[in-house]
Amino acid sequence: MKSEKSFIFNPAESGLRKTLKEYEAVALRYIWTIDDEGAVSAATTAVVNEKLAPATISRASIIFFLNRLVVQGVLGFWDGTGKGGHHKIYFPLMDEKGYKKHLLKTIIDSMMRDFPEETQEAIKEYIESLKNQLEPV
């Protein structure tokens, strides 16, 4: 069973698409632009659907995604009230750079759990190759 804190890593993709669907990347970028002001799911859904038209993403899909990011510690929320009753107002707990570091740490932690020796060796080899690239010839 997949954990709520998990994500799927696709090395064939580029940028945020390595771990996010297209609509998820658009939604997260929107949340980053509004920062501490916060955004409700309805506004996030509207922005996503405007950017991805003619595709239509359901509000339920956006809510599920945003709540998943809350569980992962990427977003926070506070309860707001207004037309229609109570609703969550989402805000970022980490910026794009922090999110990318979060992804990398999650991947490394997972590999260390399952393949500690091999992961440590690969990291050491990678660091050594970086040192070699930076050394003057």
List the helices and strands and how they pair.
Blueprint: H1 22-34, H2 41-52, H3 59-72, E1 75-82, E2 85-92, H4 96-114, H5 116-134
Antiparallel strand pairs: 1-2
Helix pairs in contact: 1-2, 2-3, 4-5
Strand content: 5-15%
Q: Could you say which overall geometry the principal axes of the C-alpha atoms support?
A: elongated
CATH structural class of the largest domain: Mainly Alpha
Query: What is the CATH homology-level superfamily of the largest domain?
Result: Winged helix-like DNA-binding domain superfamily/Winged helix DNA-binding domain
Model description:
- The protein is mainly α and 137 residues long.
- The protein folds into two domains: 15-93, Winged helix-like DNA-binding domain superfamily/Winged helix DNA-binding domain (Arc Repressor Mutant, subunit A), CATH 1.10.10; 98-134, no CATH class.
- The chain contains five helices and two strands; from the N terminus they run αααββαα.
- The protein has helices at residues 22-34, 41-52, 59-72, 96-114, 116-134; strands at residues 75-82, 85-92.
- It has a two-stranded antiparallel ribbon.
- Helix 2 (41-52) packs across helix 3 and helix 4 (96-114) crosses helix 5 (116-134).
Features of this protein?
about 140 residues; mainly alpha; Arc Repressor Mutant, subunit A; 5 helices; about 55% helix
Can I get a quick summary?
With about 140 residues, the chain is mainly α. Helices cover about 55% and strands about 10% of the residues.
